[in-house]
Amino acid sequence: MSKKIIILNGSPRIKGNTSALTSSFRKGAESAGHTVTEFFLDTMNINGCKGCCGGGKDPASPCVQKDDMDKIYPIYKEADIVVLASPLYYWTISGQLKCAFDRLFAVAECDPDYRNPKKESILIMAAEGHDFEESEYWYDRLEKHLGWKSLGKILCGSVMNIGDIDGKPELDTAFELGKSII
Known about the structure:
This protein is an alpha/beta fold. It has 6 helices and 5 strands, in the order βαβαβααβαβα. 35% of the residues lie in helices and 19% in strands. The radius of gyration is 16 Å and the shape is globular. It starts with a strand and ends with a helix.
């Protein structure tokens, strides 16, 4: 059965190392017949969450703020799998990804009990170093709180400059993870 996959790419580099990983994952997923939609968050107009708890009144546009999140909401709600992709910035995910993910709370506000839609998820990250512990902790706790199921993590270190990822085995791992989704 074909799955709908959304990639929230928090990298500011459209042709960077994180994007190389998401591209490889996407090729694998599409070769298995899945539909993949990727959002490059840095190119979008997305405001930070106001914490107003005023969302959820309009399921088609659940947040009270009107910006490019309205492009993401319908794809997110229909998605079976959410891929969170980011370079490692200051030992955690990028601000672009955190900002967009915070705004997804408006979708939970559509439910009277503030339940998030149940999803499967994947974490994809690239970094100059290898210290992904803080990001993994965030991801693992997020997944637990939302009741999501992780399909895996692809964490590629030692990739500072664009193109440093070329030839890294994590590219094949990303492709195979995408291809293995059932």
